[in-house]
Specification:
This protein is of the alpha/beta class. About 40% of the residues lie in helices and about 20% in strands. The strands form two sheets. Strands 2-1-3-10-4-11 form a six-stranded mixed sheet, with helices on one face. It has a five-stranded mixed sheet with strand order 7-6-8-5-9. Helix 2 packs antiparallel against helix 11. This is ABC transporter substrate-binding protein. InterPro entries: ModA/WtpA. Keywords: Signal. It holds the Pfam family SBP_bac_11.
Length: about 260
């Protein structure tokens, strides 16, 4: 009787193993390898979540840094124009609209993920200036010898709108250097600029700087980050599963940890 039960258990185990192997062999359930292009604001978040998602889903993530806009070859629109393959794009949300118009992405898959705010940084070891009020912030900008900004959303805003809001003229504008495709914080850490401005989450990922804080509300811009699936992706279901994961409690917690505000 005991031997019969043991044989029965062994047969059941073999059947379960065989069923699992057959299931894994079916094309529809094979593990996917997703290529994800992410701009700087969300890159530290996805980098932190990558291992958890891979363990949870069985899928693999190939994460590549890619600015949401700009003239560099690495910028997402330029990469898509060259027909580079990608499954999911995580980027400045308003920059997704032109990609939808070009029919490079699936509009129905578009999800807003987080709010991001601009912060200011100085080289580590430098006394952080007081930017607690608009008046003090303007004085810091006026006194600075050099200012670094990104070639993406925050930098474009600072150059095209913020200086006008603060009634700062050509003298301040002339101090600005645009840093393409690399973190602004690195330029500050290397002493190439006295002040650096970028999304808070991007600055938090850089060593050798001190983040002074978010710029004052009257000068601030709320930038949304979103995710969207490319039309060219051959793994639409796996891509959709990953985008859904980016809206999970785990992902939202990491966003907060990295300096973003979940949407």
């Amino acid at each position: 009787m005991l031997h019969a039960k043991k044989r029965s258990r062994e047969m059941k185990q073999r059947t379960m193993v065989l069923a699992a192997l057959l299931l894994a062999a079916q094309p529809g359930v094979q593990a996917a390898t997703l290529k994800v292009f992410s701009s700087g604001g969300m890159y530290p978040v996805i980098e932190s979540l990558k291992q958890d998602y891979q363990q949870q889903s069985g899928d693999s993530i190939e994460l590549e840094a890619a600015p949401s806009m700009g003239d560099t070859p690495q910028a997402i629109p330029n990469r898509l124009k060259r027909h580079e393959s990608a499954d999911v794009l995580v980027m400045v949300d308003y920059a997704i609209k032109p990609l939808e118009q070009a029919k490079w992405v699936d509009s129905a898959s578009h999800q807003v993920l987080a709010h991001s705010y601009i912060a200011m940084a100085v080289k580590q070891g430098t006394t952080p200036p007081d930017i607690s009020t608009v008046a003090k912030f303007k004085q810091v900008l006026t006194s600075a010898s050099s200012i670094a900004v990104s070639d993406s959303a925050s930098g474009k805003y600072i150059q095209s709108k913020m200086l006008d809001k603060l009634q700062l003229g050509p003298k301040t504008a002339a101090k600005i250097t645009v840093i393409p495709a690399t973190p602004v914080g690195e330029a500050v850490a290397q002493g190439k600029a006295e002040l650096g401005f970028q999304q808070n989450s991007e600055l938090k990922a850089v060593k050798g700087i001190t983040i002074v804080g978010l710029i004052p509300p009257a000068a601030q811009q709320d930038t949304l980050y979103g995710a969207v699936i490319t039309r060219s992706s051959q793994q639409q279901q796996a891509a959709a599963k990953f985008v859904k994961y980016l809206q999970s409690d785990k992902a939202r917690s990491v966003m907060q940890e990295k300096g973003l505000t979940p949407y």
